């Protein structure tokens, strides 16, 4: 098995948010979005069949928010887009690595993805199971007033464009990010 081959290849364990520990150990698979994707993309179902158990190489992130091996950084729980999703923040220069908590290009637009047009959007709609948590996450991240954002989707963003765009997304998340059928009643 692949995880047996990995034994002894790392000097330190990898850290993960506690929600992901069972998934990484192969004891639990992701929730509804994966089943939805399996129906559309058979390769996702095949990937689940060959899931590699990396649980013995992963330890939970420290509860104090510190990031092992990354002095000055802290991890922030950013559930919503996926269970166990985190962002990384460095207070000294206000750099925020957001993963998919929000994006800096419209992931639902092929043209925007190809051109990498820089504009702030919510997390990718096609794979976000918990919109209430996603909204709370965006509001918490906006409250950090990051100077620089490094996303998984889109380009690095900074300055007034970031400040205004993130504040607008946090204030109007229901209208701007959540698919019509998933919005809360007013």
Describe the structure.
This protein is of the alpha/beta class and 186 residues long. It has 2 domains: 1-60, no CATH class; 64-179, Ribonuclease Z/Hydroxyacylglutathione hydrolase-like (Metallo-beta-lactamase, Chain A, 4-Layer Sandwich), CATH 3.60.15.10. Helix content is 33%, strand content 15%. The protein is built from 8 helices and 7 strands; from the N terminus they run αβαααββββααββαα. It has helices spanning 2-6, 21-24, 32-40, 42-49, 110-115, 131-143, 159-171, 173-176, and strands at 14-16, 58-60, 73-77, 86-90, 95-99, 148-151, 157-158. The protein has a 5-stranded mixed β-sheet. α3 (32-40) crosses α4 (42-49) and α6 crosses α7. It is globular, with a radius of gyration of 18 Å.
């Amino acid at each position: 098995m692949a995880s047996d081959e990995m034994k002894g290849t790392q000097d330190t364990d990898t850290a993960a948010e506690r929600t992901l520990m069972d998934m990484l150990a192969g004891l639990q698979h992701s929730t509804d979005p994966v089943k939805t994707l399996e129906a559309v993309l058979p390769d996702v179902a095949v990937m689940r069949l060959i899931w590699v158990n990396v649980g013995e190489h992963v330890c939970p992130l420290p509860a104090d928010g510190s990031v092992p091996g990354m002095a000055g950084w802290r991890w922030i729980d950013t559930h919503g887009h996926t269970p166990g999703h985190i962002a990384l923040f460095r207070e000294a220069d206000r750099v925020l690595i957001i993963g998919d908590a929000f994006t800096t290009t419209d992931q639902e637009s092929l043209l925007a993805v190809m051109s990498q047009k820089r504009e702030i959007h919510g997390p990718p709609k096609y794979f976000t199971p918990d919109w209430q948590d996603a909204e709370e996450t965006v509001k918490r991240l906006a409250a950090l007033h990051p100077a620089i954002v490094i996303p998984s989707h889109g380009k690095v963003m900074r300055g007034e464009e970031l400040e205004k765009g993130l504040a607008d997304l946090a204030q109007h998340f229901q209208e701007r990010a959540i698919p019509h059928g998933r919005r809360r009643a007013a």
